[in-house]
# Entry
Amino acid sequence: MNKILSAVLLTAFCSLMVACSQRGTVVYAVEDAPGYNCWPMIQNIGDRLVCVYTVGKYHDPSEKGRGAYARYSDDGARSWSERVLVDENPEYGTSSIGKGSDSESNALFWIRRMNADPRMALYRTSDGKKFDLISTPHLDPNPMQITDIYQTPEGLECLWFSDDYSDIHDNKSWGVLISRDNGLNWEQRVIEKDLPKKDWPTEPSVAVIGDGCLIAIARCEMMGGCQFQLTSNDWGKTWNKTTTNIGDVLQSTPTLIYDKNKELIYNYYYQRGDGLLKVRTASVKDILENGKAWPEPRILAEGGRERPHDSGNANAVAIKSRHFITYYSGDPVNCRVVVAARR
# Structure
């Protein structure tokens, strides 16, 4: 059965490669073994790409024993190393939820632990081969997730959000974490609290514009909702929140890349249901104070459509002019982790 399944996946993946190549984007497999391989995060160490993701039997982040693994690539995502274990325990499930770099260019990855250990775990690697656990902060409120790490004059920062996904309770919050010692210790700030679900920005991605300016795009948990846009002019001490004109998302996570030389910002996201990896490219000056001015999207690749939420959640990194966007695509029990490479 595994051989048959692998052949089916390979055939589907080859068709995907052809379709994407025609759009100037090539999609490479990171992990396509049988099983629910998902929730990837990608970061570079120089020219080396490192992808962290989780491996389980089905679509359930709380599945006990679900482990977090990593592979690295030195040829622009074409081929990947053997996988190495990052975090695994029979008493809890893991999800890879955020990534970034420290001031010494090491790669950092946040891992969410569910069940027996509800804390977030931060791992550091200098080579994509060995991962060191450097922090498991006690936070209040305890985040649902901590997202991608970025650097400001204060140190390392990342956004977080909490609490549950219910429509009933107005108990949602979000804010900022700050580390002044390269990720060993974290200070927590709450930006908004006691929010209803409709006003709750989740799974945000931040682009550092400069001179105190930050811009973030966040997911909306409401069906039919549009992405949020968050902006700050004081390195994240205060934020302004608006909605965008980006509604072709279906609760899928955005990821931003900012090209300082061209003053362009790239908003990558996976439209669940339709199974489409998309990008919207905008001039920062056009959208910074007008979240509804994002241009129309460009389709880059296609993925799973069988059940909308079994595929999605893009995460991107840039190496020079090349962009690498990882996401997962499949069905409830068989899902692959891929990387779309484009210039």
Notes: The first strand starts at residue 26 and ends at 31. The chain is about 5% helix and 50% strand. Helices lie at 2-21, 284-287.
